[in-house]
Amino acid sequence: MRGFFLTFEGLDGSGKSTQLRRLATHLESLGLPVTVTRQPGGTHIGDRIRSLLLDSKTDRVAPMTELGLMFSDRAQGIAEIIRPALDQGRVILCDRYTDSTEAYQGAGRQLGSDVVRRLHVDLCGGLDPDLTLLLLPDFARSLARARRRNDRTAARGKDEGRFEKEDEAFYRRVYDQYRAIAAREPQRVTVIDGDRSIDEIHRQILYLVEEKLRTAGLLTSRAETVR
């Protein structure tokens, strides 16, 4: 049986990585085989690309170069992790995928959606997620959280703050493009917006995901969702 491919999207500071980890723990408690990965990163090659792309000391990267590196990472992640996991019937939870590239490089860098979507077909074989959870809390609060988090990680000697140096106009374009993607693909993308507690969002995600997994035949009994 084919597995299930789920992606988490949103601005940095939206809480998506926290929710991904909590979902992975819950699904594993139900006995489901889970593969967790991220983009950029997740493979040896991808982690090297990630360190280059996110290091704040990396400068003068042409937007098309950045786009090419993002898709090089993605093609490797698909070949090495995602497709094998799908073939093994696993649930794949991926932190960012092509929607991020359309939002950040397509809109943020103003390269446009067309080039991103063409590369997705050519380099990723058009592999789309079965479900995308798009976390969109309040724009200003999300951006502030991302920058505070970057300051904390930088203080611990880990520099992944290159994108956090961008101005508010850049992030507004990213945010608006995420909204446009969700409107364009409502069957795949579920928007989780508003500023609610981590537990409230977790419960909503569990309900959505369990229903999708039951429909896919990967979850045969009604799981007891945390109330």
Provide key terms for this protein:
227 residues, Rossmann fold, 55% helix, single chain, 5 strands, 12% strand, five-stranded parallel beta sheet, alpha/beta
In words, what does this structure look like?
This protein has 227 residues and is an alpha/beta fold. It has helices spanning 16-29, 44-54, 63-87, 98-108, 113-124, 139-155, 168-184, 198-215, and strands spanning 4-9, 34-38, 91-95, 131-136, 189-193. It has one domain: Rossmann fold, CATH 3.40.50. It is built from eight helices and five strands; from the N terminus they run E-H-E-H-H-E-H-H-E-H-H-E-H.
Describe the SSE topology:
Layout: E1 4-9, H1 16-29, E2 34-38, H2 44-54, H3 63-87, E3 91-95, H4 98-108, H5 113-124, E4 131-136, H6 139-155, H7 168-184, E5 189-193, H8 198-215
Parallel strand pairs: 1-3, 1-4, 2-3, 4-5
Helix pairs in contact: 1-8, 2-3, 3-5, 4-5, 4-7
What's the shape?
A: globular
N- to C-terminal separation? 30 Å
Low-confidence segments, ≥5 residues, pLDDT <50?
223-227
CATH topology, anyone?
A: Rossmann fold
Number of domain modules: 1
Q: What is the total tally of β strands?
A: 5
Instruction: Encode the helix/strand succession as letters.
Output: EHEHHEHHEHHEH
CATH superfamily: P-loop containing nucleotide triphosphate hydrolases
Structural class: alpha/beta
What Rg is obtained from the alpha carbons, in whole angstroms?
17 Å
